[in-house]
Amino acid sequence: MTSAVGVGFGKVILLGEHAVVYGYPALAAALPQGVTLVAALQPGDRGAHGLRLTLELESWRLAVDTAALPEHPVSQALCAIAAELVKGWGGDAPSWSGGAVRLHGTAEIWPSAGLGSSAALAVAAARALGALAGRALDDAAVRAAASAGERVFHGQPSGLDVALATSGGAGVFERQGGLVPLPLPRLGLVIGHSGAPRSTAAMVARVAERTAGDRDDVRLRELGQATARGLSAVAARDLPALGAAMDAAHGQLAALGVSTDRLDEMCALARGAGALGAKLTGAGGGGCAIALVPPGASALAAAIEAAWQLRGLDTRRVELGAG
Ligand code: PMV
């Protein structure tokens, strides 16, 4: 095989970011959009020191060459992914291991915005490299390889992003037990980008500092309770109750210092336009806000988009869940 394709999904956290780091459950869903990569062997272009990987993702203006920029975090993540794959094959080196591979493709989610972009990239790369080697990778092998890449970006991620980027669908994630699939009722989300980049590691560190790492911190407990109410709402297919839990979660995330004036304003605008609930999603400090709307409520979704776009923000709509 001289070329192969791999896909990883983006994700949105409906409830439970940050608390999940302390062992509370989080409710999250994969986005239909993500990252698609084609891996192609570059014959004759052998790396001077073993495998050479290049990555081009035009939509993120990202171009990396592990030989030219070995210190670049994306280079290090790609090398970690490849090394973990080879380790999983018991050191049985694939055809590409001493040569050069070009990864190129498309990304349909914003980078560094709380939508799991790095996990989607890592999963797509793991799948494309596995397929290029002609090896069948099960989800556990994909997660192991992609997590090696995610650790380069995020230190000690909870694993939520990689789990959803791999499996798609929706579920309840716990650090100990991993992802348990949970069908969502049909719902609409409007996603808006605050325009500010953010760092997951910095926001996780801020929460650790504000809570002194104490799982029983009242704000973390309240976040856990909001998630519990949200899970009951999902079971009862009660979207207004889910929206109320999202509003409460945003308040606690703000109290933990991970919201911004812009994210607070976006949530207020969405609620003012009639959203069932609104909150930041992901690590915060920038990135995205989400607003919950009933399925098919296109006039309401358009009103929320208009309110955000009037502030110069990028928006998009997704419909999640089934039946
Ligand atoms: O912003 P993202 O997509 O990196 O999500 C971070 C979610 C956190 O709960 C803040 C951290 C984690 O590892 O789960």
Topology summary:
Layout: E1 3-15, E2 26-41, E3 52-57, E4 62-65, H1 73-88, E5 100-107, H2 117-132, H3 139-154, H4 160-167, E6 170-174, E7 178-181, E8 187-193, H5 200-211, H6 218-235, H7 239-255, H8 261-273, E9 277-281, E10 288-293, H9 298-309, E11 314-320
Parallel strand pairs: 3-5
Antiparallel strand pairs: 1-2, 2-5, 2-6, 3-4, 6-7, 8-10, 8-11, 9-10
Bound molecules: (3R)-3-hydroxy-3-methyl-5-(phosphonooxy)pentanoic acid.
Number of distinct helices: 9
By DSSP, the count of extended strands is 11
Helix percent reads: 25-40%
Task: Give the class from helix and strand content and strand pairing.
Answer: alpha+beta
The main sheet comes to: 7 strands, mixed
Low-confidence blocks of residues: none
Beta strand %: 25-35%
- Architecture of the largest domain in CATH? 2-Layer Sandwich
Q: What is the arithmetic mean of pLDDT?
A: 95
Shape: globular
Report how far the terminal alpha carbons are from each other: 40 Å
What ligand molecules are bound, each kind once? (3R)-3-hydroxy-3-methyl-5-(phosphonooxy)pentanoic acid
- Rg, please? 20 Å
> CATH first level of the largest domain: which class?
Alpha Beta
Q: What string, H for helix and E for strand, traces the elements in order?
A: EEEEHEHHHEEEHHHHEEHE
- Find the CATH topology of the largest domain: Ribosomal Protein S5, domain 2
User: Which oligomeric form is depicted?
Assistant: single chain
Tally the structural domains: 2
